[in-house]
Amino acid sequence: MLSDSISWIKNLQFDKNGLLPAIAQDYKTNSILMLAWMNADALYETVRTKKAVYWSRSRNRLWRKGEESGHVQIIHEIRTDCDKDVILIKVEQTGGISCHTGRNSCFFLRLDKSKTDISEDIDRLIWEETDTVLKDPKYIYK
Amino acid sequence: MLSDSISWIKNLQFDKNGLLPAIAQDYKTNSILMLAWMNADALYETVRTKKAVYWSRSRNRLWRKGEESGHVQIIHEIRTDCDKDVILIKVEQTGGISCHTGRNSCFFLRLDKSKTDISEDIDRLIWEETDTVLKDPKYIYK
C-alpha cells in the first residue's frame, strides 16, 4: 500500500490484520454514531477526501460510508489515543442517520436498567431497543 | 466461564479472542474517554459492581479500571450496537482523569488540521498533542 510509507500513518499501531477500530462521533452533539474499522488506505482516503472511509470486514473491501444511502460522514477532526491504536473521527452526519436501521446512532440497544437494583437479577437482563427510527431502511437503500 | 451461560452476554458477538471493544463515554459531557477491551467476565463484573472492568491484553488479566490510580469509572448506562459487537458504557469518571498521561481523555492526539487545506501536504501531517494534563502521572501511580 502506498499509504504505508507515510509517517503519520506509520506511527499508528495497526492490529495483525492491519486494522484499527474507528469511532465516529457527531461533531456537534458528541453523540457516538458507530464504530467500524480502518486500514491504512481507508484512513488515508478519509483524510484526502474529508469523508469517512472504512474497511468492511464482511465484504473485504473499502467501504465509503454513504456510498449507497447517501449518508456520508464529513470529517471535522481526526484523533488517535495514547496507544495510537484507535481512531476517533468527529463528523457531520449527512441526513442525521448513521445506522442501517435508520437511527442516528448504531448504539440503540440499552441494557435494561430497571432490573439492576437487585444483584440477583443481573442474569436476566435484556438488550432493549431504544432511540427513534428516523427513516424506514427500505427507503434508505434503493 | 460462568458468565458465558447468561443470555444477554451470549447475545453478543465476541471476536475470536473472546473480546469486544468497549468505549467509555462521560455520561455528562459525552466526551469519549477511552477505548479498551472486555471479555464476558469483565462485562459481567462491570454490571455486577457498577464499575468499569476491562480485559488487559498486555497483562492478560482482568483490569479493574482505577485499581491503582483510584480513577474508577462508575457505570450509568451500558449499550451495544446494531451488530452487538461493540460495548458503549456511559460513566462518571472519578477524578476527571481516564488517561495514564493525566488527561481527561486518552484521545489527545489530533491530526494537524492546519496543513490539510492543500492535498499535496497530506503526507506531511503530524499527530499533535492537545488537551490539558490535569495531574502529573508520577502523582497518579504511587
From TrEMBL, chains A, B:
<comment type="subunit">
    <text>Homodimer.</text>
</comment>
<feature type="domain" description="Phosphoribosyl-AMP cyclohydrolase">
    <location>
        <begin position="34"/>
        <end position="108"/>
    </location>
</feature>
<dbReference type="GO" id="GO:0004636">
    <property type="term" value="F:phosphoribosyl-ATP diphosphatase activity"/>
</dbReference>
<feature type="binding site">
    <location>
        <position position="99"/>
    </location>
    <ligand>
        <name>Zn(2+)</name>
    </ligand>
</feature>
<comment type="similarity">
    <text>Belongs to the PRA-CH family.</text>
</comment>
<dbReference type="GO" id="GO:0000105">
    <property type="term" value="P:L-histidine biosynthetic process"/>
</dbReference>
<dbReference type="GO" id="GO:0004635">
    <property type="term" value="F:phosphoribosyl-AMP cyclohydrolase activity"/>
</dbReference>
<dbReference type="GO" id="GO:0005737">
    <property type="term" value="C:cytoplasm"/>
</dbReference>
<keyword id="KW-0479">Metal-binding</keyword>
<feature type="binding site">
    <location>
        <position position="85"/>
    </location>
    <ligand>
        <name>Mg(2+)</name>
    </ligand>
</feature>
<dbReference type="GO" id="GO:0000287">
    <property type="term" value="F:magnesium ion binding"/>
</dbReference>
<dbReference type="Pfam" id="PF01502">
    <property type="entry name" value="PRA-CH"/>
</dbReference>
<dbReference type="InterPro" id="IPR038019">
    <property type="entry name" value="PRib_AMP_CycHydrolase_sf"/>
</dbReference>
<feature type="binding site">
    <location>
        <position position="81"/>
    </location>
    <ligand>
        <name>Mg(2+)</name>
    </ligand>
</feature>
<keyword id="KW-0460">Magnesium</keyword>
<feature type="binding site">
    <location>
        <position position="83"/>
    </location>
    <ligand>
        <name>Mg(2+)</name>
    </ligand>
</feature>
<keyword id="KW-0963">Cytoplasm</keyword>
<protein>
    <recommendedName>
        <fullName>Phosphoribosyl-AMP cyclohydrolase</fullName>
        <ecNumber>3.5.4.19</ecNumber>
    </recommendedName>
</protein>
<comment type="pathway">
    <text>Amino-acid biosynthesis; L-histidine biosynthesis; L-histidine from 5-phospho-alpha-D-ribose 1-diphosphate: step 3/9.</text>
</comment>
<feature type="binding site">
    <location>
        <position position="82"/>
    </location>
    <ligand>
        <name>Zn(2+)</name>
    </ligand>
</feature>
<dbReference type="InterPro" id="IPR002496">
    <property type="entry name" value="PRib_AMP_CycHydrolase_dom"/>
</dbReference>
<keyword id="KW-0862">Zinc</keyword>
<dbReference type="InterPro" id="IPR026660">
    <property type="entry name" value="PRA-CH"/>
</dbReference>
<dbReference type="GO" id="GO:0008270">
    <property type="term" value="F:zinc ion binding"/>
</dbReference>
<keyword id="KW-0368">Histidine biosynthesis</keyword>
<keyword id="KW-0378">Hydrolase</keyword>
<comment type="function">
    <text>Catalyzes the hydrolysis of the adenine ring of phosphoribosyl-AMP.</text>
</comment>
<comment type="pathway">
    <text>Amino-acid biosynthesis; L-histidine biosynthesis; L-histidine from 5-phospho-alpha-D-ribose 1-diphosphate: step 2/9.</text>
</comment>
<keyword id="KW-0028">Amino-acid biosynthesis</keyword>
<feature type="binding site">
    <location>
        <position position="106"/>
    </location>
    <ligand>
        <name>Zn(2+)</name>
    </ligand>
</feature>
<comment type="similarity">
    <text>In the N-terminal section; belongs to the PRA-CH family.</text>
</comment>
